[in-house]
Amino acid sequence: MLIASATTTAAEAAVSILLLLHLQRGFGLGVIEAAYVFLPGAIALMVLPPLLHKVVLRAGRRRAVIAASVFSAIFAVSLAWAASPVLISVLWILSGVAWAVLMPIEQAVVAEAAPDSVGTAMGVYTAVGLLSGAVGAIAAGVLYEFSSWQAACLVSAALILCGAVLGPWAIRRLGVADVPAEESPAVPGP
Questions:
Q1: From the CA atom positions of the chain, what is the Rg in Å?
Q2: Fold of the 2-174 domain
Q3: 75-84 as b/e: b if 16+ CB within 10 A
Q4: Is the pTM of this model over 0.85?
Q5: Residues 6+ apart with CB under 8 A from 123
Q6: Does residue 25 register a pLDDT over 90?
Q7: Residue 183: which pLDDT band, with cuts at 50, 70 and 90?
Q8: What SS3 state is found at 166?
Q9: Closest Cα partner for 73 from 7, 139, 168, 153?
Q10: Where are the alpha helices (H) located in the chain, listed in sequence order?
Q11: Spatial contact of 48 and 139, defined as CB atoms under 8 Å apart
């Protein structure tokens, strides 16, 4: 699961930094204008996980990971030819929706795979995420500098699509439930 998470996190970090560079260089946006482009996707990532969990309960984790990875890769490919900051902002929502599905699944799978050491497992998961995010950002800068904007987006999309294969494989390999048990509501005390 850590390999799947690291691959997609590196690619998503690359897309994020590529987007920021492109908004500044390609469209001449300042910091505040660029933040407005990122805002709708950030709101989607913040608000949607509880709602999308119901979809995961019906579809299963493996299918949800595949769908979210494909949507995120479509975003990265579309970004390569997006002609305006408004369109990019709308596309960024698609990435936020994908991460609103992926992150809770990854965290739940890591926690379930290590029931006796959840804290350690989550610490390793977080460290791998931070490290792969840094690697992705550096790689994106190099790609952007020495190749084209489109090539950098396509490389990121290809890495994100790897998550559509690695994520379901990891879930199956770890032996965690594909369809998580629905939590029962807390029973109020006396």
A1: 17
A2: Growth Hormone; Chain: A; (1.20.1250)
A3: bbbbbbebee
A4: yes
A5: none
A6: no
A7: low
A8: helix
A9: 153
A10: 2-25, 31-47, 49-59, 61-79, 85-113, 118-146, 149-174
A11: no
Q: Which residues contact 19 (CB under 8 A, 6 or more apart)?
A: 37, 38, 79, 88, 92
Two structure tokens written together for 68: 């979210």
Q: Which residues lie below 8 Å from residue 159, measured CB to CB, with a gap of 6+?
A: 7, 8, 10, 11, 14
Q: Comparing C-alpha atoms, which of 74, 97, 77, 96 is closest to residue 18?
A: 77
Enumerate the domain spans of the chain. 2-174
Q: How many Cβ atoms from other residues are within 10 Å of residue 151's Cβ?
A: 13
pLDDT surpassing 90 at residue 106:
yes
Asked if 18 contacts 152 with a C-beta cutoff of 8 angstroms, the reply is yes
What's the gap between Cα 2 and its chain centre?
A: 13
Tokens of 94: 């698609």
pLDDT in tens, 53-95: 999 999 999 999 999 999 999 989 998 888 899 999 999 998 8
